[in-house]
Amino acid sequence: MQNLIDNFRFYMLIIRTKLADDTPPSACIIHANRSAENLLGYHQKDLIDRPLDSVITLKEISVWEEALASTEHGDADNCFEAEIITQNQHRIQALLSLSPLPKQNTAYTDSVLLIQAIKPGNDLLVMRRVVEQSASAMMLTNYTGNIEYINPKFTELTGYTAKELLGQNPKILQSGNTSLEHYQNMWSALIKYGEWQGEVQNKHKNGSDYWVLESVSTIKNSEGEITHFLAVEEDITHRKAVESALTESEERFRQMADLSGEWLWEQDPDGYYLYSSSAVKQILGFSEAQIIGKHYTTLLTPQDQESQTAFSTNHHAFNALVNHYQHRDGHQILTESTGLPITDPNGTLIKWRGIDRDITAKMNFQAALIESEKRTRMIIDSSMNAIIIMDSSGLITDWNHSAERMFGWSADEATSQRLDKLIIPERFHQAHQAGLITYLGSGTWPLLNQQTEQVAKRRDGTEFPIELCVSPLKIGNDYIFSNFIHDISGRKSAEKQIRQSQVNLAIAQNEIKIAQEIQATLSPSTPIKLAAFEITGFCVPADKVGGDYYDYFFRNDSHLDIVIADVSGHSIGPALFMVETRSALRAQNNPSVTPAETLGLLNNFLFIDLNNSDYFITLFYMQVDLDRQQLSYANAGHPPPLLFNRIQNKFMELDADGLIVGIKQDVFFEEKSMSLCEGDVILFYTDGLIEAENAKQEFFGLERVKAIFCQNSHLTPQAIIDTLFTTLQDFCQRTLFDDDITLMVFKWH
């Protein structure tokens, strides 16, 4: 391996960084391959133990320390520019890449430092700076769609870190509001033309939606094969919000204009119509489309055409101007017109805006009667309820617009038809006719003058629920019946959904109660306090039912087993898996079965159940040999417990290789052993502790846990747990958390 590294053509150094709590980390070279020796002009023996700042300018050391810190936190980008100093003091601009080596020591960190010399005017470096500093979000995926690179702007736009997105499919960002056809068209265009551009709605990490204008291009190799896809995104969320607000405002204005019943219009400076509300149809018989583009004088009667021309050429508003219009069918319409000139800041006329009110009825000989009938008609037609008037023989005499929309029959089609034949289901015909006959004979009908729920039918035969109120009115010697009908389909549907929701809620509450009862039986009810040791635990679920589990029990007189686990999810499912896990572990009463073997047996035992239910378990298992004062442990992907040696004032993370339970069968679990020393204290915890956030979105963090644990290690296990949890509540300023938090402390006397 050493010979292979030495013969690499790229320049490589291995750097050792010594760590100390009270001083900055110091770095030195512990190995260099031949290419690096040649670049720097040193023999290998001269480079060994040489301080890093002897080959990198002091100005860049702080940058190197930041890169080292970023690798420890798992950040994706650990490259940085630096100036290399050769033995003869020649300075070389270079791009450095830092990667930590596995199996680190707590006293130092070993890292691989790759050096790439940068030639003046290097296009690659310029392009890297362009991408990193771009105001546009950029994402690079491989051919299968997995993300391989994102620039800083992309993390800012999505809220995800590079670590969270690298290796993921961009589907993680989809909001669910973009159709499958949209994405299919995008991929078709990419394959056919090599590029695509369009608007996409995605979801931010915090759950909010955002819009981007996305340009996607294919990247091909020298053989013309597509290897990658590059997406460049511009945030257009604000623009879309403005467009939506503008559209809503325009729609609101249009609806208000249509509902007003008055003719609203706009004209250009020369008097040609730019806009017309739908009321023009009611007043003049023309549709909006027939009005737009016409000069206003073409609608006037001949006597008004000449006298009214002057109003379009001056800048003076007019009010209550009486116009004589020619209706589409030829009869004369009188309106009261009000107009306002719209000018720019320079006083130039831009357009006219005005309103015409039909006053034909009140200017007519039968003004009072016509006005009354018109008002009644407008009330009926603008009513949200269907209004149907029926005579004493059951024939329809009036049918308003809401009735047209509700039942699907136009007024012309409905008038003179029998009410029961048109809107009443056939099974109720006889009851309707009998009630009408009874009322005409005796003056009584239970349905009259009260609101009742009935069933009606539409033109297509579909039935729906309605609220019906029937009021009789005697005219001369005859009767008419006014039917006021309200469609309650939406209300009935909502009531049904509410009832179903109440059922679902009751079921869910019952499941939660069952899960709580199950979970309450899992953890030990009391701590263990003996001369040799003391152990206790504590669990706070994030929801009514948590996914954490801890246990400690004697396998026999000389062996104590300790376990802590985190089952994914909440509610009754994880609670049942806790029971199954606890039963499987406690059933292993053979003291010769090691922790690693126990995890292997447990994984195979639970694999099918976990795999079928999409759950998994992280679990740490420890066995304490009380006679030999030795502990053995194995880990299935759980946060490693912290062992604090009070004599040496030193922490140790108890970790071992092993995959989480429920992912695959026949997993190898590494097992480690060590001797216990007097005063050793071990803290077991779940990730809810270190990942708890405060209002500033700062993590409680492992380092803070270590500091509190160290300061209180002399206390009893229960006191240590109480101090940790109280400090956590003060840090987060709350008592409820987003994830379950479990703590367990073992103290060897």
Write a concise keyword list for the protein shown above.
749 residues, five-stranded antiparallel β-sheet, alpha+beta, Beta-Lactamase, 24 helices, 5 domains, 31 strands
Give a description of the structure.
There is one protein chain. By secondary structure, the chain is α+β, with helices and mostly antiparallel strands. It has 5 domains: 1-120, 2-Layer Sandwich (Beta-Lactamase), CATH 3.30.450; 125-241, PAS domain (Beta-Lactamase); 261-364, PAS domain (Beta-Lactamase, 2-Layer Sandwich), CATH 3.30.450; 384-489, PAS domain (Beta-Lactamase, 2-Layer Sandwich); 516-748, PPM-type phosphatase domain (Phosphatase 2c, domain 1), CATH 3.60.40. Helices cover 33% and strands 31% of the residues. The protein is built from 24 helices and 31 strands. The strands form 6 sheets. The chain has a 6-stranded antiparallel β-sheet. A hairpin with a 5-residue loop joins strand 3 (79-85) and strand 4. Helix 19 runs parallel beside helix 20 and helix 20 packs antiparallel against helix 21. The longest helix has 32 residues, at 489-520. The chain is flat, with a radius of gyration of 41 Å. It starts with a helix and ends with a strand. The model has no long low-confidence stretch (mean pLDDT 84).
Q: Could you outline the blueprint of secondary structure elements for this entry?
A:
Layout: H1 2-6, E1 11-18, E2 26-32, H2 34-40, H3 44-47, H4 61-72, E3 79-85, E4 91-100, E5 108-117, H5 123-132, E6 137-142, E7 147-150, H6 152-158, H7 162-165, H8 180-193, E8 195-203, E9 209-220, E10 226-235, H9 237-260, E11 263-267, E12 273-276, H10 279-284, H11 288-291, H12 302-305, E13 318-326, E14 332-343, E15 349-358, H13 360-363, H14 367-382, E16 386-391, E17 396-399, H15 401-407, H16 411-414, H17 419-423, H18 429-442, E18 451-457, E19 463-475, E20 478-487, H19 489-520, E21 528-529, E22 533-540, E23 548-556, E24 559-567, H20 572-587, H21 595-613, E25 617-625, E26 630-636, E27 642-645, E28 650-653, E29 671-675, E30 681-685, H22 687-690, H23 702-711, H24 717-732, E31 741-748
Antiparallel strand pairs: 1-2, 1-5, 3-4, 4-5, 6-7, 6-10, 8-9, 9-10, 11-12, 11-15, 13-14, 14-15, 16-17, 16-20, 18-19, 19-20, 21-22, 22-31, 23-24, 24-25, 25-26, 26-29, 27-28, 27-30, 30-31
Protein name: Histidine kinase
Organism: Methylomonas lenta
InterPro entries: Bact_Sigma-Reg, PAC, PAS, PAS-assoc_C, PAS-like_dom_sf, PAS_fold, PPM-type-like_dom_sf, PPM-type_phosphatase-like_dom
